[in-house]
Queue: 2 jobs
Job 1
Amino acid sequence: MTLHDLEETLPGLAGPARAPDASGRRLAALVRRDQLEAVRRSVLTAIPVNMLLGLASVLVAFQAGNGRAGMIWYAASTGANLLRIGLCRAACPGLALTAAMPPDMAAEASRSVEGHLRACTLAALLSGLVWAFLPLLCAGYTSPQTLFYLTITCGITAGAVTHGTAYARIPFSFILLPLLSAALCLFAVGGFDRACLAACVLLYLAALSRTAFQSEAGFREASRLKNDATTLARSRAEAQASANALVEEMRWRATHDDLTGLLNRAGFIQQAEARLNAGTACLLLLDLDGFKSVNDVYGHQTGDRVLVEVARRLRATLPPDGLAARLGGDEFAVLYDPAGAGVPYADLAAGLIAAVAQPFDGFDEARLGVSIGVHAEPEPNLMEMLSCADEALYASKAAGRNRFRLFDAGLRDCLEMRRDLERDLSHALVENALEVWFQPIYALDARTLVGLEALVRWRHPRLGWIAPPDLIAAAAMAGLTESLLRFILDQVCRMMQILRSQGLGTVRVAMNVSPREMAQIPVDEIVIGRLGALGLPPAMLEIEITEETALDLGAVQGKLQALSRAGIRVALDDFGIGYSSLSSLRQLRADRIKIDRSFVTGLSASDDKRGLVLAVLGLGNLLGLEVVAEGVESQEDLQTLQAMGCPFLQGYHLGRPMPVSTLEATLFANRTQAA
Ligand code: C2E
Ligand code: MG
Ligand code: MG
């Protein structure tokens, strides 16, 4: 493969400025450079011989009594030789020409090479001219020294051709004039044998010239092959280097986070696993507090800047051999060896919290914090360590912002319980081991049944009763959210059918839907479809959501609208403990608010609670919303709420959640009796 072929197959290598003919010119210039180098070497080797032969000629001239002419001739010859030596030693920028040189510099170098070759050719011609005057020392080849001078002339010209294989014009310029002058002199002397000798000299000139040009062609070909091979090797090396760089870049991208430059999840797992095998390590999982509002309020660009800055602070706070990664969103991970670094995990976690709490350019520092989950015990594998640290992070988040929490025995129990739940829940659903209980909701008189709230119940064979929030979380982890919702909806629909059959069609059944369920599954389609299929009136159903549902408004607004358009009512549960009560009322299209039981239980003995409940009742009146008080646990609280005019009441004092059979046996039976 030649340079040419290579550049055609790999056009990118040559660069945009190098068209194929340009590469041909570059190759020709490189050959010329090699020729000049060889010329300079060969002339410098040939000149001493030239001088010696010149000296011998002068000595013979002296001996023949022609010393003066000999001296003049030798002086001229020496002058020409010195000029040639000087030219061969003169600096030539063109010799620095390489295949990789930029085109403009290469053109400049090439011009300088050509100039030097021309100068050397002229100097060779001059030197040849001096040798053309050699017949003066032997009376034009008539004196007895003729044989000597003729031999010298032939010898020196043969030597010039033998040495000058790189660039034929130089030996040619050198030999032309001496051999022509010899032939002319011999012709001039006359006679058959001299004329024959003159003709032979001319033949000799032609043969030498041919040899010189053939040698140059050979030299050029060898040089071209050499340069081709060099360029090919260089291009291969460059291609290899750029392929290596590409591989390196791809490897970096696969293992690093583009935004922050920290390791990404894959890179972290890779490196952390190697560290775990090597010895002890402590894992910290970090989740920023309040990052979502930074994004919402200041935009994603500011959010990105904050993440970059957090990453920088993380690196600055970490011990030198610590690993830091961004696992996604606003979640970071750190792995280090506390013993090796001499930094206990509590100090590092406190340092990280303090680092993130520093003000950020462009917004109020009070908005950002970080929660940290720590796992300091070795585990059989990294995934296990990550889930333990995640459990600790979850607990730390639940305890409030800017804290860290160590994964301990208590959290291990929780984690194991959740895993058991996740594992067993799908069987429980299939085997109908789950139940839905109902808690009554009464009107102001505390006697008229106006609603039933469906509450899921699961008695785990080993763990006993499972708190509904744990069950909902386990369903989410096990990917069973939709199955669970469909199961509860079926029970709710069954209850609606029972109520209708009992002539209680005005009693509404409420069903809880968690923010995650609301955001992730098509609750509206499922619910409306099911009611339609069973021919149940949508007005009999109420969906209870919490204010947290408003956090992912984009994902839920359309579904809430669809439910509301279908005639299904929406109640805002646990009202008062969320973040954005008033705005969420509007955004979530609530028809009803359920005051959280923390404001209700014990309100008869608390002015504050009474004040709050009164305020919510006033708000309900003002906005035309129904208000339910949850958590009515005592007669005193009930009376206080009745005195305040709270229209709907729910709580253990009025009725606990109960299975359908109990409900039928007590509530409906009593009603029938009362009727
Ligand atoms: P929630 O929707 O606020 O449900 C009311 C919770 O308060 C129920 O707890 C109920 O048993 C309890 N409760 C009712 N009256 C009183 C009272 O007077 N005093 C006290 N201390 N508690 C009372 P439960 O059944 O443990 O449910 C807890 C939470 O779990 C529910 O709060 C709801 O957010 C969620 N949940 C329950 N069932 C479901 C369900 O089927 N789906 C979804 N997504 N969430 C559910
Ligand atoms: Mg509820
Ligand atoms: Mg509630």
Note: Residues 202 and 452 are 128 Å apart (CA to CA).
Job 2
Amino acid sequence: MFRPQKYSIPDRAGQPFIDPVEIRRLLDANPAPQHSQVAAAVESALGLNRLSLQQTAVLLNAGPEDRRLVLEAAGTLKRRVYGDRIVVFAPLYIGNKCVNDCSYCGFRSSNPRAVRRTLSPDEIAGEVRQLSSTGQKRLILVFGEHPLYDPGFIASAVRLVYSTRQDHDRINRVNINAAPFDVDGFRTIKRAGIGTYQIFQETYDPQVYSRIHGRGPKSDYTYRLTAMDRAMEAGIDDVGLGVLLGHADWRFEVMALVRHTNHLEACYGVGPHTISFPRVRKASNLDLSGIDHVTDDDFRYLVAVLRLAVPYAGLILTAREPGQLRNGMIKYGVSQIDAGTRLEIGGYSGPAATQQIDREQFELSDTRTLEQTVAELVKAGQIPSFCTACYRKGRTGEYFMQFASGGHIKHYCTPNALLSFAEYLCDYTSGPLYEKGWELIRSELDRMPAGALRDNTAKKLREIPGGARDLFM
Ligand code: SAM
Ligand code: SF4
């Protein structure tokens, strides 16, 4: 599936690999590709082949007619690889002290309006109890960059989340988004049992990067670029890449994400578990006039291109975006969303929701509760998945990749999505949502090929209303 490619900067573990001139040249070499070139790249992607950077550039430059073909193909591939399911999680902000000065972020050190807070262990446990009492099973813990939030602190927070449980209410997978560490630091975090280590390069254009990261350790482009290499060396083989759209050309950023993917595959035999592509949002004391907003059409399109270029990666679309747009983008390749999100530190167990921009990193667009989001997914025929089976069964990294890229994922993931959703329905819903949810489960079960897997799934599903829990394949 992945064939190593020759680049101006060869892939070496721990070494930088982005050559902006090369990426630009690939994009500029074919500004108006022919239909046959687009169709060939699409066909290759539908055959579950990873796309080369040249093929990705072809798709990124496709004309309006061919864009339709790409969007459609992304939907087909999403269904083929992931089935009709969408993984649901929530972010939990632990602390917003920060020594960096990222121009776009409400938590930047030069923002005097930012209200700084770090949750105590009791407060973390309170947030976790509140989140898990709504049915959440997967969290991502988020931290500013500060000497206080060292690897030991992060590891303790992760352990505390796993140990905070009551009856069925428990978090089964804890991911983190935190500053990059050295290999020893990553080892400390790995030992606490994290799922995915996520960090965004923000922009892969070094000049733009320098302009928007003026001060603090984050101003070191290369240290951030090679963070995943150090994580891999420390044994964390589940990593999440991302860019913050609105600073550099979005086509360039997509090419760079694919280049980063190729680097990880070439050096470690494992690509990214997830890719994120947030657009800059309004934030405390922030002037948005210099932001080059990516239009909704381009945004949808770039997600479709990523889906085709890296078929195995989970594509994450967060509540920064409005609910309607999120609902619509699932069919173009998005496979993970957050739901019931509150960004204010301590916001889940605090008083009910109005957003207070000085207490948050940025403004949310989608403020639906988890239950409202689930209800809309069900209406759209999508199974909300709270599954954490791969992580708990050790199906991570290389194994996960082969598994997913061969299209086998739905043979485990569909049953596990059904089982975890059935448990959610029994524990956290009643009335019409409960009924409609089970209807969807029955129809998805009917669509599974007849055989042992379907029979086994049906048997386990029957046990859930009687009290059986935490069932997975
Ligand atoms: N301090 C960590 C770091 O910088 O990697 C944590 C990152 S932050 C809590 C998560 C992500 O939010 C950032 O990497 C950035 O991409 C994004 N972000 C920051 N400000 C934003 C804004 N105004 N709108 C949308 N996303 C933003
Ligand atoms: Fe700090 Fe992260 Fe915000 Fe930058 S993006 S100011 S590092 S919290």
Note: DSSP finds 19 helices and nine strands in the chain.
